[in-house]
Write a structure and sequence with these properties.
about 675 residues, globular
Length: about 675
């Protein structure tokens, strides 16, 4: 099969490199499958193109507009994913390996589009936290907001996940409103290029929102500014070089790093050989050694087990690894494919030699070439370190392949110490049914790990396991793992935005954020429940008449609901309560009476009341007190073409004008 010549996507067009073509070989048989080069690209022009052509367009879109764009891209990739699977075999990945990369990446887009529409406003500014009172009378307030950075996100990705690695960065980047330039690792860039083609051909991205470099980045970094972001996945040595680039230092460019780390899996001291957690541990370690041929930044590199179980664990792991079929990834019987290249396999072999200074090989031959000598196949290799607290290499050297080392511990403190000697990891998994051990481990080791996965008999059936970063949770870790964070739900979006403290009057802050704040101007007219979604301006308010709450109301509510708590029914006991000093109305009675004051009974645009947020009872209401409600449109979000969510600010006051309760009311209104 003739090799394909990969193309860069720069300044809105596909461009082949002008020379210096690099050969990319199949991991399965060594054949050249693609040629790649980025020579001839004007990297400064690419950066300017993204800023001038795409940034303003993306930033003019709301979070919901961008979320819909992600959904359309996910659908386009799904429709053509079989093309990606076919190319993926050449990376050495089995169908199951490719599912993690391809479907996992598409799934990340799907999660982010959903969270974007559910958790973010249909606006361009994101409010962070609550209003801060900066003055006595409330005319001067503070508020933190996020706005899109007005630069370019440069994504430097690793070879092991050519699709997921790209999409898990693009999802929060696009949702934040930034254009991106993607630079995949050359070894598997043919798969990334195919995925980019699908997204470009979907014709939903603004011009310049996505560009691709399939080769060297040249002088790209020289054109970085303080509004840009560099997000990197790969080795610690490369990350260190990039961090020290003069432009990154000079411009204080945001640098997000996700580095390979010596992740650990701990078998709890409570576990016995016949415990469910024992079997789960064996399965997980074997899986993490062989999925993607161990080429995962989250793979288990160190198995930390109770000393008295070391032999049993070793025998069980060997038995499981012996069942792993190594071969052509296209063969459904294959359970482990090839490493990405023979050079990668050679690097793994060298790293095993270094680790062997502290440990002995108890399973596998790193120098054997199973299945096909022209390919990058190798056996899983299990090592054993007898004295891990005296060792160095097992805690410092990572063989980025199907390699793990077992090591014993005597007590929970030793287990924690060994886990922490990795000097920071992306993930640690713990197999235990002992809650006290789990808590101790988190307190002693939490600061060394970006994620801790507890896997036991209760969670195992639904757990995604040790090595699966989920879009909802942060992916990153301290120290050796790079000190960065990716994904993490909406947290990941904020890496591509600037948090700014705004100070001013409620009037101006409400106008900027399109959200009503106490003290801002209000308007009124006909009952707000008679107005459709689009006819309700922010700050539209209804002030109700007052209603007195009598002792009979309190007693009736108590008997009717069954809530006969003493504070409502026993004057003497309630008087002894320092918070009340006598009988008080039920909080839910106040809510019910408040609703009775502002609800319009006739059919109208309000379709449903579906929740209360941030409910607080501020001051007791006693028999004889009166309550009044101020109902104000706080913000609005269109959910469907004919329906929108209205968030109402509800403030309940007494006859003295003192607030007794407050909450956000959510209604769905016809548009």
């Amino acid at each position: 099969m003739k090799p394909i010549t990969l193309q860069n996507f720069a300044e809105g067009r596909w461009i082949a490199g002008s020379g210096g073509m690099a050969e990319l070989r199949s991991a399965v048989n060594g054949d050249v499958v693609a040629l790649t080069s980025s020579q001839g690209l004007d990297f400064g022009a690419m950066m300017r193109f993204a800023r001038e052509q795409a940034a303003s367009t993306l930033q003019a879109m709301t979070f919901h507009d961008r979320a819909k764009m992600l959904k359309a891209l996910a659908e386009a990739l799904t429709a053509r994913k079989e093309e990606l699977y076919e190319l993926s075999y050449n990376t050495g990945a089995t169908k199951a390996d490719s599912w993690i990369d391809i479907d996992g990446g598409i799934g990340t887009f799907a999660v982010y589009q959903s969270k974007g529409r559910r958790e973010l406003p249909d606006e361009r500014i994101l409010i962070d936290g609550n209003v801060e009172a900066l003055s006595r009378n409330g005319t001067f307030q503070g508020l933190h907001v996020y706005t899109s950075l007005q630069g370019v996100a440069v994504h430097i990705n690793a070879f092991n996940f050519p699709v997921w690695g790209m999409l898990e960065k693009l999802a929060p980047t696009f949702l934040a409103g930034m254009p991106a330039i993607v630079k995949p690792a050359s070894a598997t860039s043919y798969l990334t290029e195919a995925a980019v083609r699908i997204m470009i051909e979907a014709n939903v991205l603004p011009r310049g929102a996505l560009q691709l470099i399939v080769g060297s980045t040249g002088d790209l970094f020289d054109h970085l500014t303080s509004q840009d972001v560099v997000s990197f996945t790969g080795s610690a040595s490369t990350a260190a070089k990039l961090r020290a680039h003069p432009a990154i230092v000079r411009e204080s460019v945001r640098f997000i790093a996700e580095q390979d780390s010596l992740n650990a899996s701990v078998l709890g001291p409570d576990v016995k050989a016949d415990s469910p957690e024992f079997d789960l541990f064996i399965k997980e370690v074997a899986k993490e050694m062989t999925v993607k041929a161990g080429q995962k930044c989250t793979a288990i590199r160190r198995g930390i087990v109770p000393a008295h179980l070391l032999d049993v664990v070793q025998d069980a792991l060997k038995a499981r690894l012996e069942k792993v079929t190594i071969g052509d990834p296209r063969d459904e019987a294959t359970r482990m494919g090839a490493l990405v290249s023979t050079s990668q396999r050679n690097d793994v072999r060298e790293k095993i030699k270094e680790i062997a200074a502290d440990a002995s090989i108890v399973y596998g031959d790193p120098n054997a070439a199973p299945f096909n000598e022209k390919g990058a196949f190798m056996s899983p290799v299990l090592l054993r370190c007898e004295r891990p607290r005296e060792a160095r290499a097992v805690h410092d050297v990572e063989a980025f392949g199907p390699v793990a080392t077992l090591m014993p511990y005597g007590n929970w403190a030793e287990a924690s110490d060994l886990a922490n000697r990795g000097k920071g990891s992306l993930v640690m998994s713990v197999f235990t049914y002992d809650n006290a051990f789990a808590e101790d481990l988190v307190l002693d080791s939490g600061s060394f790990h970006g994620r801790i996965a507890f896997i036991d008999r209760d969670s195992a059936k639904e757990s995604t396991g040790h090595g699966s970063p989920m879009p909802h949770m942060i992916h990153g870790g301290p120290g050796r793992a790079g000190g960065g964070e990716e994904m993490g739900g909406i947290r990941g979006v904020k890496h591509y935005m600037q948090r700014t403290a705004l100070q001013g009057s409620p009037r101006v802050l409400s106008a900027i954020t399109h959200r009503y704040m106490a003290g801002a101007p209000v308007s009124s007219g006909e009952h707000p429940f008679r107005r459709k979604f689009h006819d309700l301006p922010i700050g539209y308010q209804l002030k109700t008449k007052a209603r007195e709450i009598a002792l009979d109301d309190i007693e009736h509510f108590a008997h009717f609901t069954g809530d006969t708590f003493y504070a409502h029914m026993d004057e003497e006991a309630a008087r002894a309560n320092p918070l009340f000093g006598g009988r008080v109305a039920h909080g839910y009675l106040i809510l019910a009476f408040a609703a009775g004051l502002f609800v319009d009974p006739d059919p109208g645009p309000v379709l449903a009341n579906y929740g209360l947020d941030n409910l607080r009872f501020v001051k007791p209401v006693k028999p004889g007190d009166s309550i009044q409600v101020a109902l104000t449109v706080k913000d609005k979000t269109l959910r469907k073409p004919d329906q929108g969510e209205v968030r109402w600010d509800v403030v309940v006051t007494n006859q003295n004008g003192e607030q007794v309760a407050g909450y956000d009311l959510l209604t769905m209104n016809a548009a």
